[in-house]
Amino acid sequence: MRYTMFGQTGSRVSSLGFGAMNLPGVPFEQAKAALNYALDEGINYIDTAAGYRNSEEIIGDSISHRRSEYFLATKTNKRDYKSAMEEMERSLTRMKTDVIDLLQVHYVNTVQEFKAAMEEDGAYQAALEMKRKGHVRFIGITGHRPELLAKWISKGQFDQVLFHLNLAQPFALQELIPEATRQNMGKTAMKPLSGGFIQPVSKAIRYPYSQDVHTIISGMVSIDEVKENIAAMREEVGDEERHELEQLALELGSHNCRRCNYCSCPIGVTIPDIMISSQVRQTFGLLPKGDGFYERQKDKILSCADYEPCREKPLCEEKCPYHLPMQQVVQQAAGYFNAG
């Protein structure tokens, strides 16, 4: 396991972090075993959020007795002081700890949300207050708009930033990672499999592993998944492999969707998932989780071409800050079912 100094925090973190978002979806004993096995194998970065159902409670009940062994990161998606303070206090109780190593202002995707969080009565001030009280050590920010995150971190108010980085979403490399490096911030990459779409797992993990980040959080739910992720990182990435991965990322990232979720579909198509998986689906096919997503979305995808209000001007495309051809990609996805 590779360990690096996490920005200016003074903490050394493992290159693989444990993303606990999906733990509420499996039996408690399985989740507990996965967390403890991860710690046994040297993973020392645990990531969760107050909004991940009972993920924080699972962490508290499973590994709080080993609190000195891991760097604990959680999140609040509240924007005002009062709600954020209440949520952080609940997080401490749920995770059975007195200190959160990293509190992240979570899922900030618009200028309005950022301004609200940074106001005098905003969530950032609540995090600073918890830091003054000794209950939070460092403050970070997360979001899906890398170019906006690059601007927001430039003022030196945050210790860490969390962002997408995978073969189908390489966009953080352009502005965000260089700015975080200049600020000497902790750099945490998330969704190496892009929510279960990218395969093979080994290749997917090795792409962010080859880039300038400190830790990659993978949403693991079993001992076998922990083993699979660790195995992908056993060897360092050489120059030739890095070049091949970067070329592949250029191809798979050509959809240009950042998953900012500005778009919305009146018939319920989950547009970002279809955009991001479009090139992966054509190049590698999908993991079982990806196949399951397409089956659940089948009726909505097939209905896109017949939805009358979008015939002349797609409603989703009006909201996209990147002006992407979303209707075209969704309708092309209908061919996935014909091929099957």
From TrEMBL:
**Pfam families, per this entry?**
Aldo_ket_red
Residue span, NADP-dependent oxidoreductase domain:
16-199
State the source organism's domain of life. Answer: Bacteria
InterPro entries this protein is in? Answer: AKR2_Oxidoreductase, NADP_OxRdtase_dom
Q: What is this protein called?
A: NADP-dependent oxidoreductase domain-containing protein
